[in-house]
Each structure stands twice: as C-alpha cells, then as structure tokens.
Amino acid sequence: MNLHASRVLVTREGCALPLRMAEKRYGVVPDIVFYRADGWSLAAPAELEEAAYALWKESWICFQRAGEEMKSIQQYERNKQ
C-alpha cells in the first residue's frame, strides 16, 4: 500500500517536497502521513516522524502508517507516551 501526501518532509528544518521529487532527489520513502482537516497532508520517513508531527501538531486530525488503516491523531498521541 502506497502512502499519498501533499508533501513529504525531507529535512528536520521543515523542507517538504512533492512525493516524486522527495524520492528522486533525496531517496525519501514515507513511512507515515499526517492529515489536517483542510485536506492537506504531510508524509515523512521514520527518522523525520517526530519533526513532521511537531510542525502542525495542533492541526493534525488523523495519521496513517504504511500498510495500516488511517487512525485518529489521539491514538497516535496515546501511543507516543
């Protein structure tokens, strides 16, 4: 199952690119996608997951890991603790 997102985080500083560009330039393959209520989404590889979450942590409504179903952001936050 492929993950789809508006952008993919490629640096901890917040640089995010379209999926194809992130894969081609940086070799980044997303492991997780965070979704906002307005439909925008941000994917990240495992090593940038925390940085992606922190960018809009007040705006995320759900998330999805590769190979899994979409889940509420509250479930993500509970599992972080």
As a percent range, the share of helical residues equals: 25-40%
* Strand percentage: 25-35%
Biggest sheet strand order reads 2-1-4-3-5-6
If helices are DSSP runs of H or I spanning 4 or more residues, what is the number of helices?
3
Shape: globular
Q: Could you tell me the number of beta strands?
A: 6
Along the chain, the helix and strand elements come as EEHEEHEEH
Distance between the termini: 27 Å
Mean pLDDT: 93
Indicate the structural class: alpha+beta
- Biggest pleated-sheet summary: 6 strands, mixed
Low-confidence segments, ≥5 residues, pLDDT <50? Answer: none
Cα gyration radius (Å): 12 Å
Structure description:
It is a single chain. This protein is of the alpha+beta class. It contains three helices and six strands. It has a six-stranded mixed β-sheet with strand order 2-1-4-3-5-6. The model has no long low-confidence stretch (mean pLDDT 93).
Features:
alpha+beta, single chain, 3 helices, 81 residues
Brief rundown of the structure:
28% of the residues lie in helices and 27% in strands. By secondary structure, it is of the alpha+beta class.
What is the fold's blueprint, element by element?
Elements: E1 7-9, E2 16-17, H1 19-26, E3 32-36, E4 41-44, H2 49-55, E5 60-65, E6 71-72, H3 73-80
Parallel strand pairs: 1-4
Antiparallel strand pairs: 1-2, 3-4, 3-5, 5-6
